[in-house]
């Protein structure tokens, strides 16, 4: 039996032994060992900053370990580069989307191996037909001839999944793959993972969602502060045990106590008969001070369009967006100056300056103007923000690039905690944020509404909606389709309300 074989004699698809990695001032991984046999789905859990992405970078050849080694199907990952990893069949679906927006869906899917004619030329028709066939096999309902940049974030994520699976993979690494997916798309992804497992591909599945681990994984490994603290078969564990390993301290998920809701006053914002790209019918909507309004609906249902209209990030074609009864600013910077905060779903788009410090990023938020002259205040403010958002680092002079993905999201959120806006619009605010920090963020939002701020949350997470919302506006196929009370609604009710009606289906035909 070689090093990479298990008792059954199976050679591990991927085997990493004693891997350690440090960045300046931070030990990201200490002596981590992990092996996946062919056809195994292995979940990797850990709070923000635990070392998951660093391990992924090492397994995919992007970063070299300081100590330890990686073998793929019994062969050393040497030289330790992404090209070697790819050649050995290790593929990655990254946390951030990387579709080429100006290329077609087909070109994006087939990017790594465009089918050629006998003369060695690339045939557009062959590319389209091969891509469409692959998308259909995966169950991804997207037309291969569309421009990738015109797709929703969730569709782009599925196109990327199609790209990484277009060629046979020995090991597929999925880094928080459901962060921008909702109900049906999650099922598509699960189907793909199950099919790959059946054909012998090993899947390393990184997630903050325990139900996904129990739905999909055979084995689970928990990292904490860069060390492997727990490794077991999923059949032999339960959610409480896993959580106790993910978080060193007891997780405070106690009830979110809410101040009694203030009597309805005049709306602070309203949409009156608004039409815009992404909407199929005029939208009427009011946002009141002191309430959390949730916009619930699958990707493409119009929730992001409404959030962007409120935040000045999308222009109405007809109708009016009102702020305190007067026309609202029609640009993002104008809306920010008028006190409308916005946390978009794609944090890269929110202009995080990755090379600059956490302090600077907090105070360079679109509503901040005076940070340049007050570095100490910026520093103190950033520390307060980081503590409030339960970020694992208190050193606000660190560059944002050195933060884990989830902690970068907290900085985006923290920007708006440090300002005094009257409306805060958040699109999927806790995607990629660990469960502990999620609840800290929910508490912050509820405190802000108790002080009179209006909060609008676009979310595809039913638990999030029930924890936060006073009112839920449900959207399907580009129009508002229902409004329900946040306190009494259930995930089942929301799911049923979000399912397309007969009318939606007929209009789509
Ligand atoms: N390029 C870098 N330079 C300095 N420190 C880094 C760098 N990349 C990661 N780190 C640090 O290494 C540690 C592990 O980060 P990593 O991104 O692996 O966490 P993670 O478990 O993937 O978190 P998340 O759930 O937020 O994505 C963190 O303390 C992070 O700040």
UniProtKB/TrEMBL annotation:
Record's keyword terms, sorted: ATP-binding, Nucleotide-binding, Repeat, Transport
PROSITE patterns: ABC_TRANSPORTER_1, ABC_TRANSPORTER_2
SMART domains in the record: AAA
GO molecular function: ATP binding; ATP hydrolysis activity
Residue ranges constituting the ABC transporter domain according to the UniProt record: 14-250, 263-502
SUPFAM superfamilies, A to Z: P-loop containing nucleoside triphosphate hydrolases
Pfam families reported in the protein's UniProt record: ABC_tran
Domain of life: Bacteria
Protein name: Monosaccharide ABC transporter ATP-binding protein (CUT2 family)
Naturally occurring in which organism (per UniProt): Quadrisphaera granulorum
